[in-house]
């Protein structure tokens, strides 16, 4: 997969100055839901960008994260170290989990909620595991 084939994952909506046209086309409730979804997507994109920054500097190896970031941005050292620490801690925890339960006759399952564009599955896919990806969902009350 080349970087040219990577789709744009997130484009912020342009703000409109005429509020009457937006309120007639979309309800206020739907606009609020859209803002929350945009915030979640923006957080996901920022996290992927921070992970790529740490990878590019050499904190850890991840050959997949580059495909989730459109424009690489170098982050401050504290951000790079923080993302490296989190990625390493989660990876070590999962490896220990597999080591403890790998002798079991039952299959091992890991559910990662709120992981966004996390590449852990791709980095650890050599291990036997069941993968189910839940897409961004929200519940309307």
Structural summary, described in words:
Its EC number is 2.1.1.233. It comes from Heterostelium pallidum (strain ATCC 26659 / Pp 5 / PN500). This protein is mainly alpha-helical. Helix content is 47%, strand content 0%. The chain has one domain. The protein is flat and about 55 Å long. The C terminus is likely disordered.
List the helices and strands and how they pair.
Blueprint: H1 19-25, H2 28-57, H3 77-101, H4 120-123
Tally of distinct domains: 1
Strand content: under 5%
What is the average per-residue confidence, as pLDDT, rounded to a whole number?
78
Biggest sheet descriptor: none
The end-to-end distance, rounded to whole angstroms, is: 40 Å
- Overall geometry: flat
SSE order, as H and E?
A: HHHH
What is Rg? 19 Å
In terms of structural class, how would the helical and strand content be classed?
A: mainly alpha
> Uncertain spans, ≥5 residues at pLDDT below 50?
136-141
Question: What percent of residues adopt helix (DSSP H or I)?
Answer: 40-55%
The counted number of beta strands is: 0
User: How many helices in DSSP terms?
Assistant: 4
